[in-house]
Amino acid sequence: MARKKNSSLIATKVLPFDKYELYNKAVQSPEDDVQFYLECYKEIRKGKKPITLREDFCGGGAISCEWVKLDKAHKSSGIDLDPEPMDYGRKNYISKLNDDQQSRIALIKKDVLSGGLPTADLAVAVNFSYFLFKKREILKKYFDNVYQSLNHKGLFILDIFGGSQCYDAIEDKTKHKDFTYYWDQQSYDPLTNEAYFEIHFRYKNKKYENVFSYDWRMWSIPELKELLIEVGFQDAKVYWEGSNRQGGGNGVFKQTDKGESCLSWIAYIVGIK
Ligand SMILES: C[S@@+](CC[C@H](N)C(=O)[O-])C[C@H]1O[C@@H](n2cnc3c(N)ncnc32)[C@H](O)[C@@H]1O
């Protein structure tokens, strides 16, 4: 599966490439992401436009940067525990914004499980980062924090992946111009739904193993919808990806009440305050 993946970073190794640059090229598509968030908000809120976006688990804050580029009124904040990717983002992404855009973005070192998250019209948690919360009560605490932080008519957008292939120990590889990206599904335990994944890169004919690793619980769409409703969201809608002619995802997500069984899928869940 997987065009988009990520989560907790492993110890910094001396690598002959910029791991965040390769990660960004391999798994992120922030320009498309912000366009989807905007359209989704306008669809659900009948044409009303969101102004403030908060990117939880922001890493380098690539989405926060694209949000302030999209409209002169937009403001964004990115939240992460780890200063390393945020410093990378300040140096490599935020520094490339103009002064006005820079004045409308802030990356903040904070635990999303702590209270007082910055208020927003849109909160997003993508690339499945919340999968690192394995206990229901902990994930519920995070969702409650998000609910409390959202403005009136706010939305919470999170992505999720699944499909029968996610339970197999397989390595998926994608060739890019200067490197190869590997998504390695090492283990899955049906008793706990916990799974362990690694990202490797091949660069200049050498494979660098375990550049990023992910120790996750595979949550399901109904579990997440139930939790969103439990913390107070009025509704939770699912946006399912359409297919291309080869049977892969086409990058177009539409709201639906019925999915389809497939080897690998990605969807968005939208919590409506
Ligand atoms: C690999 S990243 C995701 C980066 C980015 N969102 C993306 O799409 O690629 C997951 C991030 O979650 C952060 N993180 C983990 N637990 C967190 C928590 N409790 N509060 C805030 N950030 C957390 C990690 O430091 C890490 O940067």
Please describe what this structure looks like.
With 273 residues, the protein is an alpha/beta fold. It has helices at residues 19-27, 30-44, 62-70, 83-92, 99-102, 136-149, 221-230; strands at residues 52-56, 75-80, 105-109, 120-125, 150-162, 171-175, 179-189, 194-203, 206-217, 235-243, 249-256, 265-272. A hairpin with a 2-residue loop joins strand 8 and strand 9. Helix 2 (30-44) packs across helix 3. It is globular. The site of S-adenosylmethionine has 20 residues, from strand 2.
How would the blueprint of this fold be written?
Layout: H1 19-27, H2 30-44, E1 52-56, H3 62-70, E2 75-80, H4 83-92, H5 99-102, E3 105-109, E4 120-125, H6 136-149, E5 150-162, E6 171-175, E7 179-189, E8 194-203, E9 206-217, H7 221-230, E10 235-243, E11 249-256, E12 265-272
Parallel strand pairs: 1-2, 1-4, 2-3, 4-5
Antiparallel strand pairs: 5-12, 6-7, 7-8, 8-9, 10-11, 10-12
Helix pairs in contact: 2-3
The chain binds S-adenosylmethionine.
S-adenosylmethionine is lined by residues 6-9, 28, 57-59, 79-82, 85, 111-113, 126-127, 129, 132.
